[in-house]
Structure formats: C-alpha cells, structure tokens
C-alpha cells in the first residue's frame, strides 16, 4: 500500500502512497495508523496545519525545543515544494547532515520528519498547499530556527521571500542540538 524510501538520516523516510484512481477521480491514503506505526511513526495528530504559499516563499528552517519537540508528516495537496530536513539530534551520527526532497502533489509523496530535525521548504509553484501533521502542539516559546542559507543546502533560488522572523534566524552552529531525553513524552 506504501512504498518507503529510506534516507541517509536514520528515522527520516519518504513515503509514496498507492493511488486509487477511477473514472470519478483519485483517492490517496495520507495516513494509516497501523502501517505508519510499523515504520516508527505514531501520534502525529496533535496539530494539523494546512499552509498556502506563493511561489518562491521559503519557510524555515524551524524546530521546536524540548519538551515540545515535534515530529511531522509533510505532504503537498497542490503544487510542489523543495523540502529540506536537517538532523540536529544530539549524538546522532548524522548530526548536521541534511536531506532534500521534491514533494509534489502529482507524486503524492509524504516526508516523515522525526523529532530532533529542523525543517524548511521552498515553494516551487503559486498557490501551493502544504499539509503537516504534527506530534506536538505549536509552542512559540519553544521555537528554534536556523538561517536557511547557512548550510550548503542546494536551494534552487538566491532571493526567496522570507518572513521577518526567518530573515533574522541565527546561522547553523554546533550549539543547535536537541537532546531527545528532554522530551515531554
Ligand atoms: C507553525 C504554526 C504556526 N501557527 C501560527 C502562528 C502564526 O500566527 C502563524 C504563522 O506562523 P509561522 O510564521 O511560524 O509559520 P511558518 O513560518 O509557516 O512555520 C512553519 O514552517 C515550516 C517550515 C515548519 O516546519 C512548520 O512546523 C512551521 O514551523 O501561524 C500555529 O498556530 N501553529 C503552528 O504549528
């Protein structure tokens, strides 16, 4: 029912759902609790966010600090994005490494961003709609971020549209680490 593509970052996977097509249209199963649980993905329904953006908007790189760390399932309902996850887990063998994905509403792929990762994306088409399912509620007091251009991420743009908050994020440095022992649950 799903094709799972592992990445070089342990725990971070790309999920391609089967598509059910007939003369009426298309059904896509974005979540299946039992199958996702077998992949280590559970409890990702504390907050669900649907975000519409213009082309060339870049959001991120964001994370939440303990005890409000978030895992996320990210998919695209319309349009497409260049999506990036950065491993900031303390003691991770892939600390500071990142993966890039092209999440596309035509491909229907879903990226699982585990707890302990920073996440961001560039919007590639106008009126793109991104859907996130999150394992923890939004907590502005626990927000953290990394400036988008401070790693060697191959963003396909030089001057993205950023929020004031994202423009002023600190560059990546090795004090940006998440200890998974300090999670709430
Ligand atoms: C992210 C978020 C925002 N909000 C509100 C706060 C604010 O008024 C408005 C916009 O917030 P922001 O500017 O922080 O939204 P944005 O820059 O889109 O932040 C998002 O970026 C991507 C890359 C992620 O991975 C998300 O988890 C989230 O951090 O939405 C929530 O209520 N819940 C949420 O989970």
From TrEMBL:
Molecular-function annotations in GO: dTDP-4-dehydrorhamnose 3,5-epimerase activity
Keywords linked to the UniProt accession: Isomerase
InterPro entries: RmlC-like, RmlC-like_jellyroll, RmlC_Cupin_sf
Top-rank taxon: Bacteria
Gene3D superfamilies reported in the protein's UniProt record: Jelly Rolls (2.60.120.10)
Annotated catalysed reactions: dTDP-4-dehydro-6-deoxy-alpha-D-glucose = dTDP-4-dehydro-beta-L-rhamnose
EC number from the UniProt entry: 5.1.3.13
CDD domains, sorted: cupin_RmlC
Pathway recorded for this protein: Carbohydrate biosynthesis; dTDP-L-rhamnose biosynthesis
Family: Belongs to the dTDP-4-dehydrorhamnose 3,5-epimerase family.
Assembly notes: Homodimer.
Function: Catalyzes the epimerization of the C3' and C5'positions of dTDP-6-deoxy-D-xylo-4-hexulose, forming dTDP-6-deoxy-L-lyxo-4-hexulose.
PANTHER family tied to this protein: DTDP-6-DEOXY-D-GLUCOSE-3,5 EPIMERASE (PTHR21047), THYMIDINE DIPHOSPHO-4-KETO-RHAMNOSE 3,5-EPIMERASE (PTHR21047:SF2)
Name of the protein this chain belongs to: dTDP-4-dehydrorhamnose 3,5-epimerase
Organism in which the protein naturally occurs: Anaerocellum danielii
Gene: rfbC
